[in-house]
Amino acid sequence: MFKRLSSLNGFSKSNLLDFLSETYDFKNAVHKQGWGAFQSPEKRLIAQIFFEPSTRTRVSFELAAHRLGLNFAHFQMDDSTSLAKGESIQDSLKVFESLNPDLIIFRSKSDEGLNQFFQNTSIPYVCAGLGNEYHPTQALLDIFTLFEIFKKDVCDLKVLFVGDTKASRVVGSHLELSKILGYNVTQCSDQANSRKEITNNPDLESAIEGSDIIIRLRTQKERGSSLEGDSFKILSKHLNKNKLYLMHPGPFLRGEDFESHLPEHNQSLIWKQKENGLFVRSMVYRKIWSF
Ligand code: CP
Fold first, then answer.
1. What's the Cα-to-Cα distance from 199 to each of 111, 174, 191, 203, 207, rounded to whole Å?
2. Starting from the edge strand earliest in sequence, which strands make up the sheet with 213-217, in order?
């Protein structure tokens, strides 16, 4: 099932709990034995094709591949490519398909024929961010970070998204994942930036009562969202009073999304999320090729 990873809808609860548990064991084993014990038996070639900027996702997929002995090439599809001459995203992808990599990892701001392309290709693929709906490996690494603390009780957590939920593909994938695993998702957002399908309490002080985790989201100006002011800014008093964990998929804006020092707060899991991107994406490769 990991051979075509965009929506998480096809997974069962036991599939996903097994994935979290195997990633947990894999991470511990890497710490004890080193990466050398987990090399791919075959030199697969991965083409990572991004039509949008990225730091975390791009680099963690790339470093995970190198750690596992896989071959990896990143292609940033910008004005230096034939997109600048008017070639479509779909036709650009067909160029890569003709060159027959063993896996395509892609990111794009919108569909633009991508779903049609991926329905018809025989090459395995992983979505690394599509439109406002899909960022499956981000949702998996967020939940894995919580699984390290809560184990199977992760399914009983109350997760509050704060900020620009409407433009967030991270929320899109968490909505799919939460329906399978059972954790509760609510939002604290202004009306213009909220998702219609989730309960919204725009008052931060009352929204955080009873929540276990805050996942703060930045305002995605590149998708047309506008600044919310300070109403959704997370302060240390929120974490201290409610014993909440703080997460953020990144990139975050210190002083805007939260007080500047909060990523280093002892209830912040933000840097742990970044570390876990490497292990979750490694595990996706291991599942695709069963090694
Ligand atoms: N969380 C995330 O997708 O970050 P990047 O855009 O830096 O990859």
1. 27, 14, 12, 12, 10
2. 184-188, 158-163, 213-217, 245-247
What's the mean pLDDT in 249-277? 97
pTM above 0.90, yes or no: yes
Which of 55, 137, 271 to mutate for ligand 1's pocket (most ligand atoms within 8 Å of CB)? 55
**241 CA → ligand 1 middle, Å:** 30
What pLDDT shows up at residue 225? 86
Q: What is the pLDDT of residue 256?
A: 95
Q: Which atom of ligand 1 is nearest to the CA of 128?
A: 3
The pair phi, psi for residue 250, each rounded to 5°, is 80, 160
First to last CA, the chain: 15
- 8 A C-beta contact, residue 288 and residue 105: no
pLDDT at 281: 98
Do 168 and 130 touch, CB atoms closer than 8 A? Answer: no
